[in-house]
Amino acid sequence: MASIKEFEKMAYVKMTPKLEFYEENKPLTRIEYVIRRRKFDFLISIIGKISGKLVLILGCGGGMESEWLSISGGKIIGIDISSQIIRIAKRRFKKKKLKGSFVVGDMENLPFKLNSFDIIIAYDALHHSENVHTCLLEAYRTTRHIMGVIEPNITCLTRKISSIFFKKYLMETFGTLTKAYSMTFYINQFKQAGFKIVKYIFCNIIPPEVYDPLFKISYGVFGDFLSLLVPKLDKIFEILFPFSCSSCIIVSKKIGGSI
Prior knowledge:
The protein has 259 residues and is of the alpha/beta class.
């Protein structure tokens, strides 16, 4: 049986023709963009100033979050296990005339020296690893100050529903169901790696399975309306049912580090 990493590489090979995504002006991905940006803004509001900081993005994917960090003034290095998607991230930065570096590598064995970065960010990345604890140990080794993550929440009600209705699609596309863990699991993993938790919150009701860029739905003329409506529904849902939200957002600091 192939490892999780091999599944990821095979999935990216399938996705490569579709990976010019995460654009706010495309009907198919407008909701994806809005929701991901909302979670990102939550994370940065906790972390604080990015400008002038050296930031490593684990599992950087096609470079959307890297783009936002670069625009905010961060000095960006993105790493991903897929050479195909790293090429797309580089192409994205070249097209938008942004500064940043991207390398192919494993977040369980980072090719960087001790205390190389001011901040490390993982956006929907850790659950793709074979060992979350090893990833966090590597993050602790290579960051000087802060580690921030956005991760799927296993207790999310809409995630459980989507796993039933979209199971066939997920298995055909990725070879496995999307992994997720609880907020408690992530907090314990951070502490075991040596981090001190600064803040954690739940955010967003819609899991990635529903608005995946490969999903064969075009929102067409409804895209603008839905991209405005969905974040408002998210806010209401977070207030009423926080533990059922689909994402965990956690910011931690290295012992002796600052925020």
